[in-house]
Amino acid sequence: MYRIRMFFIGFLFLLGGTGFAQDTANYNVQVKQFLTTGPLGVHMPAFYNKPNMEGKTFQMADLLKFSQKKVTNPKAGKIFLRSSNETLKWETTDAQTAFKAANSAPYAIYWQTFYLQANRFVKLKLKALSTHPFEVFVEGKKKTYNYSTDNKLVTKETSLKLEKGRYLVVVKSLVKQGTAAVQPVKVSLSYAKVYTTKAITASLSDEQILDISHILLGQKLKATDISDDGSLILLQFSEAYPPKGKTINRVEIRNPKTNQILFTSRHSDISQVKWIPGTHNISYVTKDGVTPALMAYNLKTHKETLLMKTPKQFSEYSWSPKGDFIIYSVQEKYEKNKTGVYELRGMPDRWPWYRMRTQLFLFRPADHSTKQLTYGYLTNNLQDISQDESHILFSQSFPYYAKRPFTRQILMQMNLESGQVDTIWNAGFGGSAVYSPNGKQLLVTGSAAMFNGAGIHLKKAKIPNDFDIQAYIYTLATKKVEPITKDYNPSINNAWWNPVDHQIYFLSQDKSYVDIWKYNPANHKFTKLPMKVDVVTQISFARNAPVMSYSGSSISYPATGWLYNLKENKQAEVANPEKAFFAHIKFGKTANWNFKNKQGYTIQGRIYYPPNYNPDKKYPLLVYYYGGTVPTSRDFGGRYPKNLFAAMGYIVYDLQPSGAIGYGQNFSALHVNGWGKENASDIIEGTRKFIKAHPQVNPNAVGCLGASYGGYMTMWLQTQTNIFTTAIAHAGISDISSYWGQGYWGYLYSSVASANSFPWNNKKLYVDHSPLFNADKIHTPMLLIQGTADTNVPTGESIQLYTALKLLGRPVKFVEIKGQNHHIVDYNKRILWQKTIFAWLAKYLKNQPQWWNEMYPKKDL
């Protein structure tokens, strides 16, 4: 009878059906191949027939319920399980081939797996049919099961809601010894025809497209730090864990030559790990018993020693170049009165942290002595320590409302022996400063407007973009200022004056790249160093060797770490923590695409193609931009991962419109008092030219997306053109004046973006260039999305445009993310936020409204 039943099941599948009732309203997919492994012999545990404390005895089905090993990334030929008696490998089998006979064990476990690729959002039913007990898992979650052991034919069904992506399906079976010709569990899938054909495919390939999990999870390399002699590397990692996204930070110290791990902070609670100068020892902040402390650790002896008990509100610390002392900072918090009624002492007093002040202290480990270096009602920030350890640079900043940029900075030098303080500058346009190796000069970075405009390389009528950072050499004895980057187009993110080779190094925004440049003070020559990544995020220099380390990511690859020998000009990879995590990910190709705008500027852009791009097909287009002060760099991941949008089936066009830094002062100055002039024109012109140049783009399915200033651009663009099918604005500015007055940094950002323009002297800018005052021109379906706790761009910016468009009867939706600020950082809310954007785009650019309707069903309120 058993053999007749198995023959009947196989006969049904061979007829070309699913083994279940035919359904003309649905598409039906029969899973014909599996990756299979087994049998794994299993035994009942000792005393299985004795009841436990709840009176239950161990049953045959409990062998199935027990997890022998988690199934992850099965692949043909790959070993799944190895024991003393047997080795199980994954093999390709079809749905009609009987399992291998079990060994001498009384019971056997078999696994069948396949990958289910959802090519869009789809609701489907999965059916499983067998005569023996089984469990079905989708992405590790049990979806259905049969624990009956009476050998009767059983069909089990489960409903699935799948978003676009790959899903691992595992069918686990239990068979009793002596069962002849054990047939695999039969699996079929069905879904409504409203989802169109090929909504899903079943395969055995472990290749997959990029998903949100690969953006949020995995080991992220955050920074590198090279030892003084260049022989050891300290690596900082972070890793988030579902279901709530808890992040664990850790450090490792490795020998780059052998890759040997000499130290790891895994399972320990330490922070601010730093090299102790001139040694292979490290320092870090942790708890000495129950008291926070700064500790030292010897890598050779593995001995931990106490440096100092850290005071309450201990903030951060820096070692002196020779390791003779530490400069550390302590915060002091001054509370507003507790009545709940208080006077604001200026605009910054709205910031919750504004009344927190920081003072500097000096600690000498040799004798455990401490002295306070600064005091007062202003925060004192350490800028640098001289190489001979005789002086420090520190600064104070305070509001100054009489003149742009509405703050002033005092940079000072302190003689650490005498305590004498000398003021280097007291100016509106401040910056950062580090000592030259001999301590006689300073390397200063800041706006072109610093030093009475010494760095400006523009026509007199133009105002420089203060976010376009320049560099200067300042001689302390003569107070002479030498601007060294007037003809250097990249904008400086950070700067070092290396005491080993006496060269200056810049980490610079160079168009959409972030590169490292070397400047020779003797011959004034700039040299761009060859980088192994597109966007460098940080650099570390050895104090006593011509070696540096750096980390960064590229357009289609996550962060890696590198060691760079500056003398030999050789590089070696020292960290690639996500190599295995991304091994199965298939990326689409990328390409540059530029055009010359009406003003004659070359507007750079790049294209992200879908992974399985077919030039003979038509694709929806997503146009992404920021449009503000900085380019959208070629880094991987981030809050708007272009590779992820491409993986969802869109051609993505990312362009850098007028006003961005990294292209020279003339280009970046276009941002000042621009607000939708040249940059909006560039986006419209670029989109039209892009569509014309790419016949693969469906011109009736073109979306645009931007956030913050990019959100403003999204809103503003819809008042200027009807080229877009839909638009998404995250935290966009709808009224320039209300953002200027209410955003935490509104008036400060506007001191650059709207330099010398105010609501009372430039109504044309504040009114005519605000989307809210042009809302009647908007007809494009628009999604507004924003956190309810946004202090940068107040949530009211989205609310008031939503109100206007609703009253005008225009197609608009508004999604709020409770408790989130300008960026959506909560793990689960970030995922829902990302899916909200995907669902909206699918609705308008793919004519697939089901995902949106599932997330936000219509309700009568």
Automatic annotation (TrEMBL):
EC number: 3.4.19.1
Signal peptide: none
Record-annotated Peptidase S9 prolyl oligopeptidase catalytic domain positions: 643-847
Pfam hit, one: Peptidase_S9
UniProt-recorded Gene Ontology molecular function terms: omega peptidase activity; serine-type endopeptidase activity
Keywords tagged on the record: Hydrolase
InterPro entries registered for this protein in UniProt: 6-blade_b-propeller_TolB-like, AB_hydrolase_fold, Peptidase_S9_cat
Gene3D superfamilies listed in its UniProt record: alpha/beta hydrolase, TolB, C-terminal domain
Primary enzyme class: hydrolase
GO biological process: proteolysis
PANTHER family referenced in this protein's UniProt entry, alphabetically: DIPEPTIDYL PEPTIDASE FAMILY MEMBER 6 (PTHR42776:SF27), SERINE PEPTIDASE S9 FAMILY MEMBER (PTHR42776)
Name under which the protein is recorded: ApeH acylamino-acid-releasing enzyme
Species per Swiss-Prot/TrEMBL record: hydrothermal vent metagenome
Lineage: unclassified sequences, metagenomes, ecological metagenomes
